[in-house]
Amino acid sequence: MYEQLAQGINGDIRSDFGVGRQLWTPVLQGSSASGTFTYTNQSGWSLRQGLTTDVWGDVAWSSAGTAAGNLYVELPYKVALSNDKPFVGVVQSSAITYTGGTNIEVNAISNTFRGEFWNSGSGFTTANQAVVASGQLIYHIRYIGQANERA
Fold first, then answer.
1. Rounded distance, CA 135 to CA 149, Å?
2. Could you tell me if 73 and 26 are in contact, meaning their C-beta atoms sit under 8 angstroms apart?
3. Could you list the pLDDT tens digit for every one of the 151 residues in the chain?
4. Domain spans of the chain, in order of start
5. Residue 42: is it exposed, middle or buried by C-beta count within 10 angstroms (0-12/13-18/19+)?
6. Exposed (0-12), middle (13-18) or buried (19+): which is 50, by Cβ within 10 Å?
7. What dihedral do alpha carbons 42, 114, 104, 47 form, nearest 10°?
8. pTM value > 0.70
């Protein structure tokens, strides 16, 4: 009964999640065309306690293939329905040309499995980070998930 209750609260993960492990494989996408990224590093962890979800990722890629549009990562759990974008995480970037601004963050987008990368900075209106040909993103985000989600 406890196992059913826990699954009802925590939902199902949509990845290569193993029993007793929190390993998760981050997958980058483009909003206009998902493309096929060529990864040189692709590792992640997720920890879900009730509906509170922490996601850590480290992705590096040498080609974005045909990906186009705004850059995002597929999250392992669906984000709670909320107004605006209250779930913001930190990002350490390397070899990335920003679409604008001087910083990059990750936002868990309401009622989706998306962690979108956004640019910000002094005197700059925040904007989505466009897909770039190569780079590295190391990030952490905490967000509230949904119960009984289905992939």
1. 32
2. yes
3. 666 666 666 665 554 444 445 788 999 999 999 999 999 999 999 999 889 999 999 999 999 999 999 999 999 999 999 998 999 999 999 999 999 999 999 999 999 999 999 999 999 999 999 999 999 999 999 999 998 765 5
4. 2-144
5. middle
6. exposed
7. -60
8. yes
